[in-house]
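Thread: "does anyone have the structure for this chain?"

Original post by V.I.:
We have the sequence but no experimental structure in hand. Need at least a predicted one for the grant figures.
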Amino acid sequence: MPPKTFEKRVERLRELANEQGIDGFFATSESNMRYFTGFSALAIERLAAIVIPVNAMEPMLIVPKLEEEKAMKLSFFKDIRSYTDAEDPAKLVDKIIKELNLTKGTLGVESFLPFKFYKMLNEASLSLEVREASEVFQKLRRVKSTDEIDLMKEAARIVIKGIKDGIETIKAGTSELSVAFEIERKIKESGGESVPFCMVLSGENSALPHGSTSNREIKKGDAVVMDIGATYKGYYSDVTRTVFVGDADQKQRNVYDIVLRAQESTVKFVKPQVKACEVDETARKIIDKAGYGEFFTHRTGHGLGLEVHEEPYISQTNETKLEPGMTFTVEPGIYLTDKFGVRIEDNVAVTEEGRNVLTKLSKDLLIVQ
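Reply from O.Q.:
Generated one for you, tokens below.
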């Protein structure tokens, strides 16, 4: 993305900070690091972080020495501070907090900041107030730009290529894992950056919303649920399709039809100013009316972007009103324990007039031989 994009993001963060009485931000998550700099590193053992003061001083990127060269090539932040494995990063944090005049200020952090990094901030200054500020980051990131949505469209296109190859691989006697391997191979071959999850669940396993892909051999009469998440330039697509092997009995056809009607009706309901909980209710009412309400065991969807689960959550309790640029999944399902499950999932972006479905893949009932 162009430097101007990152400049605007930092400017907007500073505006929100002034409204909240925050003097600066400290973030270690890959998603927020990438959002503001274009570079990301996983902060688990070694500290990697962004520090964004609200005053006019330049924001900083802290990285281990082994990430420095990569950061210099990719990061919008040009003030990059590094440390070696022989050095204590806490000393660097202490120096930066003092340099940015934040020792007596309020520093906004993410809710899941690792404790050892939180401890570094506390030790940098006893008068520094560390405040949980996840909502500020979420407010910025939950509405996507056209550029971001374009990246998500490409991620969706790549995932769909993988699913299509997976469908061609499915047949009686093939294992779930072999289908998953084919899907992941195609995604990587097609330009996918990463495949954080690739669930292929057949037969009774398909009744587990978050089951584990196994060596189970797919059988004739099975439902096969493929739930695939992959990234392109950091942005996620998360797509699910359900197919049947050899044949589908009347109950399977009926359940599939209910889920399909719920999913399509919910997608059509999406538009600006409706509440996320109303979107969830649209799917739930159809499944409830059909007598399967107790078997729809999760929310209707979740936000997508630099994380696979982020705001807005399409749940029964979320009163957030949808805005143009919000992107999320619509994925109702029915799960009959020890029998089979059906889930259909698309990625949707809210537009000024309604919605744009980013996942262009048939949802007609499909029987593979």
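V.I.: this helps a lot. Residues 15 and 54 are 8 Å apart (CA to CA).
O.Q.: and The longest strand covers residues 235-245.
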